[in-house]
Amino acid sequence: MTFRNTFGLPVLGMLLLCSDAFAGNFADVYGAHPYATGMGNAVSSFINDSSATYYNPAGLGLPSRGNQLYHYMESRNAESPEPDAGDSGRFSNIWSDTQQIFANSLTNSPKTRSQANPHELVLQYNYAKPAIKTNAPNNSDIEGIQDHYAGLGLTLDLNNIYDLDRGLRFGLNMILPGSGNLATVNDLNPTVHRYLQRGVSNDRPLIFGGLGVELWKDHLYFGVGFTALIKGQGAILLKDVPISPDPVTPNQQVILELKPQANETLGLMFHWGKFRLGASFRRETFLFVDPLTARAQTTLLGIQFDFDLAVLDLYHPRTFTYAFAYQASENLLISVDVSRELWSKYGLSRTKERFFTPYYLEDISVPKLGVEYRWNESWSFRLGYMRRPSPLPVDLPEEVNWMDSSTVSYMAGVSYAFLPALDSNLKSPILIDLSLQTQSIKPRTELKANPTTQNPIYDYGGSAFHAGLSITLYL
Fold first, then answer.
1. What DSSP line would sit under 86-114, residue for residue?
2. Is 392 helix (H, G, I), strand (E, B) or coil?
3. How many CA atoms lie less than 13 Å away from 15 in the CB half-sphere?
4. In a 3-state reduction of DSSP, which class is residue 360?
5. The domain that contains 227 carries what CATH number?
6. How many whole angstroms separate alpha carbon 467 and alpha carbon 38?
7. How does pLDDT run across 332-359, given as a tens digit for each residue?
């Protein structure tokens, strides 16, 4: 037994020489779509584009933004265009909008709809530049961090197949790291300094899908969806490893079999008069490789050693979101979301459970606020606010060096729709969304009872800038 342990510990130390990447993802930290980002991500009670697959899949049952643009075009091109009841006040000035804010709050009117049921194709790119400041050792990891990411969204209106006289759409939204990496897998000793919400901790693809249906016309919407990640199993074969207490570099062969896994997302929306209510549930996601078998063979008497490991990484917490919005006028929308993220359910991989000090994370509530003003059928402007507390508790075990802080984000956004003229070669609308975001990363000091060179007292803080651009085509 002593012989086996003397050999095994250096080998396991070598296997774990990588960095722990567990954090929120691009959508959590910055936003899943520039339109939603400009609203402070407070959109779960009314979102109706491809990003509904992330925020609330029930929104796929609503008339899409493209459907609304087609309605504008049809009203404008009519021989005697007169705005219907659903359009009253849309082009009024700000003062007349203000007078309407509390008028007829519970009065229902049919949602404006076009007979066209356009599909939607979204291309987006997001530039994100964190500026992390810390005096922790080995901080070269934070030099030149770039959280760039791109996205591809698609919605299909199933009423083009069979007209149900109800909203019914399928949506898909993919977010890909700007680094081009398909996945970065790290499962590591938590005593190594790690930057929880920034840099490579977000370096992973995200795939969201969903189906939304309108159950009670103009009032009740339900959606079901999925978040895709990876699971699998693998083996590591080590040969010609000398028995020594010192670290060694063995010959090795690594085999991993990875498959996609899908975790469910559920959503519900209820609209009545000027009030918009929404709720969504997203199950926790993670990359899980189990078992990861390590086998080492020595040259001494052909003795063979087996180690059964498990890798758990790319964790995203189970999340409940509750949303409220008030359509104060046809032009003015005010919204509030609160997301409850259950970080306390995070589990260690078997490797960490066996060899490292356990650590604990706290559940957090993320408040979000947004306001939108539609200037006319082409222009709309948005402002947003979001505060994300850190899931790291104030008093951490002194061995743990994960760095994270509460962040406060201020956002702004603008949209412009190119609407085809009667004599134009443009046949369908094109929608441009732009968002800007600045994040303040609250300074934090981690105190150590017995600081060392490798595990010192350190400070952490900084800021982040994010800009997103999307182009939406309606087909």
1. GGTTTT--HHHHHHTTTTTTT---PPP--
2. coil
3. 25
4. coil
5. 2.40.160
6. 10
7. 999 999 999 998 888 777 777 766 666 7
CB-based contacts of 162, cutoff 8 Å, min separation 6: none
d(CA 189, CA 474): 48
Single-letter residue type at 152: L
**Alpha-carbon distance 261 to 269, whole Å?**
27
- Please give the model's pTM, rounded to 2 decimal places: 0.83
Provide φ and ψ at 342, rounded to 5°: -95, 75
pLDDT single digits (tens) 121-169 = 999 999 988 888 888 776 566 666 778 899 999 999 999 988 888 899 9
Residue corresponding to tokens 């510990």: 9
Tokens of residue 31, six digits: 């936003």
> Domain range spanning residue 39?
2-474
DSSP-derived secondary structure for 294-313: EEEE-SSTT-EEEEEEEEEE
The token duo for 66 is 């493209």
- Bridge-based pairing of strands 251-272 and 220-239 is antiparallel
User: What domain count does the chain have?
Assistant: 1
